[in-house]
Structure formats: structure tokens, C-alpha cells
UniProtKB/TrEMBL annotation:
<dbReference type="Pfam" id="PF22692">
    <property type="entry name" value="LlgE_F_G_D1"/>
</dbReference>
<dbReference type="GO" id="GO:0009424">
    <property type="term" value="C:bacterial-type flagellum hook"/>
</dbReference>
<dbReference type="GO" id="GO:0009425">
    <property type="term" value="C:bacterial-type flagellum basal body"/>
</dbReference>
<dbReference type="InterPro" id="IPR053967">
    <property type="entry name" value="LlgE_F_G-like_D1"/>
</dbReference>
<dbReference type="InterPro" id="IPR019776">
    <property type="entry name" value="Flagellar_basal_body_rod_CS"/>
</dbReference>
<dbReference type="InterPro" id="IPR037925">
    <property type="entry name" value="FlgE/F/G-like"/>
</dbReference>
<protein>
    <recommendedName>
        <fullName>Flagellar hook protein FlgE</fullName>
    </recommendedName>
</protein>
<keyword id="KW-0966">Cell projection</keyword>
<dbReference type="InterPro" id="IPR010930">
    <property type="entry name" value="Flg_bb/hook_C_dom"/>
</dbReference>
<feature type="domain" description="Flagellar basal body rod protein N-terminal">
    <location>
        <begin position="7"/>
        <end position="35"/>
    </location>
</feature>
<dbReference type="Pfam" id="PF00460">
    <property type="entry name" value="Flg_bb_rod"/>
</dbReference>
<dbReference type="Pfam" id="PF06429">
    <property type="entry name" value="Flg_bbr_C"/>
</dbReference>
<keyword id="KW-0969">Cilium</keyword>
<feature type="domain" description="Flagellar hook protein FlgE/F/G-like D1">
    <location>
        <begin position="107"/>
        <end position="152"/>
    </location>
</feature>
<comment type="similarity">
    <text>Belongs to the flagella basal body rod proteins family.</text>
</comment>
<keyword id="KW-0282">Flagellum</keyword>
<dbReference type="InterPro" id="IPR020013">
    <property type="entry name" value="Flagellar_FlgE/F/G"/>
</dbReference>
Amino acid sequence: MMRSLFSAVSGLKTHQTRMDVIGNNIANVNTEAFKASSVRFSELMYQTMSTASGGDASTGTGGVNAKQVGLGVSTASTMINITGAGSSETTGYPFDLKLSDSQTTNFFIVSDGTNTMFTRAGSFYVDGNGYLCMSSTGYTVQGWQVDKTTGEIHKDTVSPLQVMSPSNTTSAPEATTEAYVHGILDKEDTDVTGKDGYVMTLGFYDDLGYSYTAKFAVSTPKTTQGLGTGNNYFISLTDIIDSKGNSIVTKDENGNAIKDKAGKRKMLDSIWGDDGKQDDTNGPKGYYMKYDSNKGTFVSIGDGSNTTAGTKAVTAKSLKLSALGTQYTTNNADGTTQKSNFKDINVDFSTSTNVGHGGKSTLKVEKGTSVGKETGKKNGAMIGLAVDQSGKIYASYDNGNTELLGQIAVAQFANASGLEKIGDNCYQTTLNSGEFDGVGVAVDADGSKINSGQLEMSNVDLSGQFTDMIITQRGFQANSRVITVSDTLLEELINLKR
């Protein structure tokens, strides 16, 4: 039989393989994170009719090349365009994640519970057990956990990321430990000069997250003896009420019910402390505040001479609302005594001023520092999850807290094209891809990032695929014609017998 028949048949087979690959590429033109493949051909083998000979200088005869006839073509390889990024589709869903590579090709690490696999498809969801999983297969996404001691990511062997669990659906409350007074105290304000004084309220939390309101009164002092020059005022604590509007100062430090205002006043004075003086003989205890009479700036509060437990440490710019836990106790039904859960609150007066404001004061006391720290928080319920560009997963809570839950790790390979496709948008390692070390790397280690709310789409180039389809079709057609012509030649040979 003619060699051209077998060569043409091999051509048909290889072009059919190429057509199969093109068909698969086009079929997956809208498959998430699909990577297009291409086929490479190589010569099959050669039949040598005669070997090459060298030239003979003595006779003047030149060398003769070898006489060889090729026997067809074979599929050399199928190459995956693994490094070619697909276009981005914006979904807005926080757990649709797109890997944006900088220097190396990154892969999400997923597991079916037994085998570790790798994928570029970042469509994830949170399952019924709180684990982050692939939406198509349910494979769990692998990453690093948070060290409970330090609160930082512990980069160790990857494990399933449980982003919702009974331990993180709520955020622990925090007690208020700082407060600051700001605004204007106008000496011509009738509230300041009146009987009850100018009222300020401070909302704060105890360490169980319960909210309370402390009421203060600022007034002009009934006596200025020993206060020195400057604009002087007197501030006292008038009540502490709970979230239902009930005063909590109803028992003394021994747990006995307070039956009269004098007893309640004594309790408030022990919480607030004082300068060792009263504004009048029977009035509430408190502190004298001083402002510069020329500039209106705050000078000091308290004379700093009293260092009793109630006063704690009095400074020039601030003082402490003493922790009720050291002053206020409750008798339980079983006869035990329970201290309350309040913490010392340092109140800073330095940002307040004493200037004219049309007879109206704007003085206010706010919880926390002037930059919003140490405000205290109620017990928080989870209201959202988010993934940042480094793969760290954060939970946000309705008390303003944000907590780190884990970090998505990625895998990198020496030869990413050597990975083997196993379906479901997943790959597995081969001897030619390099092994996975079980730990992975941070996606931002080389400047890469994870984009939340986006998906990577297929990198199939339709125009290129249709061009390859035409070339493949013509190649198949030409090989078919070789078979037809070879058959005609054989027919002529058979006809010689006639």
C-alpha cells in the first residue's frame, strides 16, 4: 500500500484532535476561569531510503544527502494557556473572588475532605456549617486560622475556613474607659447661673455591654474662697440611670437600700470624688473647674490634693468617674455579694472653652477619646463579612467592631502549565508541575491581590478559535484529498491487469 495513505490518515487523526480541542474551548467560552488549550503537531517518523554519503576529494565526487520519506504527523502536546487572565465580571457578591496576578500564577486551594485541589474559579458561598465553599462542588476553601492569643493570622498548614460559627456570630462587649468634654461654657448662660446648673449627660457601657447615662451639673460656685484668679465653676454628679430610665444608685456600698436623698448623694459623691470640699454646707460634693479669664482656655479641674479611693488620681486636665465596681455592690438571692461591671472612666476637660456664645452653652461630654477610641461597646451581632485584597476575612458587627476571622491562602507552582485538569474547574499536581507544600503563600507576597465582588471569566479568544477552526478544517480537507488521490493511483495500478 502507498505510504501517502497512512500519512494522510495520521493527518486526519491529528486534525480531528485539534478540532476536538477547539470545540471544547468554544463550549467553555462562558465557563468561569476556564483556560483555553491549544494543540501542537510533530512529525511522526521517517523511512530512510538511503543514508547520506560524504564527498571524496580524490575523485572529485561530492557527498549525497540521505533519502527519507516522512510517514505522517502526531499530536505533540496540548498546551494550556494557564497564565492568560480572563476578563472580569462584576457581581457585587462579597464571596465572588478574582485572583489578579502580578508576577506568578496563583490558585485557590480547595479540598473535598480527602484530596487537595486547586482552582482559579472564585465563586464561593458559606454553607450550613459556616464553612467557605466552592458554589459548584461544595469543596471547602483552605486558608490560615487566627491565633487566639495574639489575634493575628498564624501561617501554618492550611485548613478549612469556617467564617461563621457560634463563637464569632457575636462580638464581646467592652466597657467605656475614656470620655472627653468639648464645647463652650458661657458664664452668662442662665442655666449655669441657675439653681440646678447646666446639665450634661454621658452615655457609657459597662463590661457586659449594658448602657447607662451619667448626669452632671455645671454651675457657678457659691464661694470663690481659695480658688484663685480665673473663671471658676463647679461640677457634680447628680445621677446614674440605666437604659430603662431607672436610677441605679439605690444601694450603698454595703448593699443596703438607700431611702433618702442624702444617702443617694453620699453614694454619688463616693463614685465621683471631690476636692475635699463642698460647694456649700449641705450641697453635693464635686470638683472646681478653672478657665483662663483672658483666653477662655481650660486650665485645670480639681486641686489634686485628694487621693482617696473615690477620687482616684486627679490631674490638671482630667479626672476619673470611679468604677462602680469598687463602690457599688449588690446582694444576691443566695446571700453572696456581687460587684458591678463598671470600669473607671477618665474624663478629659481640656478641649472645653469658656467664652461668650450669646448666653448659650454648648458644653457636652462624649464617651471615648476625641479620635473615637475606648468608647465601649454593647454586645454585637454579626451584620456582614468581607474579604480584603490580601485574602483576609473580616466580620463586622452592629456594635462597630471588626474582627479578623482567617485568611485565604493561595498556591503557586514552578510550572503552572504542568497542572492536570480534573474537571469542575479544578486542577491537581503532576510530576511536572511541582508539589504543593501544604502551607501556601499570601496572595500579596508578590504584589498580587484578590478582588472581591468579581469573577474571572474564560480566557478563550473566539476570533482566534474560529481562525484555528478554518485552518484545521482545511488541513483535514487536504489530508482527505491525499487519501482520495492515493486511492486513484492504486486504482490505476489495479487497472494495469486489465
